[in-house]
Amino acid sequence: MNKVLSKFVVLGLAAALLLTGCMPTAHKVDVLYNPLAVYRGGSGQVTLVAEAAHQEQQASNPAIRWVLGQIKDSDGAVRGDVISDYSPQSVIADAMKRELSAAGYRVDQTESRKDGQGRVIVLTAVTVALNEVVSLAKLESSCNLVVKVELWNNGQVIKRSEYHSKLSDMAIKDRDVLPQQLFQGALGEIMQQAVPDIIRQFN
Description:
By secondary structure, the chain is an alpha/beta fold. It is 34% helix and 37% strand. The protein has four helices and eight strands. It has helices at 3-22, 53-60, 88-103, 178-202; strands at residues 26-28, 45-49, 66-73, 78-84, 106-110, 119-134, 139-153, 156-171. Strands 1, 2, 3, 4, 5, 6, 7 and 8 form an eight-stranded mixed beta sheet that branches. α3 (88-103) packs across α4.
């Protein structure tokens, strides 16, 4: 092996070791939703039903974290997890409550639906995949968010809906904020679909 080739091999190994050594084993992403507050036409009382698993688990064990996705290197090897202090369902519930309140509703959030309630919004499923691919040159991130909702009125289901958002981007600088920005953006897209739909069905 000549000296030039040997030098490139050594540099390549050093870069690989540096990347492996700097690869995060966990990246915490917490979104504090800032409502768009552009929707109008809501009035009266609605009930938002979301599970309380986050509050219960946090109360019993503050060290619990929710896994939102994976961190991979450029070869596809899993190096860690994207985590959050908050469950995806609690994040969606908080965002929806803020938007519905801004739209004019009085929102009562509960853990379960009761018979005889008037207008009820039930978050039946929330799925998020917030993934990162890390290399020396850049960070690539993607966020796929799916929210399933049931709308009830006076004890009857009036609509079942599924809302989707899928975003991706890359960053060379400010890598830590990119996944959070994508999650925030996906959350905004879900609200843009769901809130006007809820207003139409309940009016």
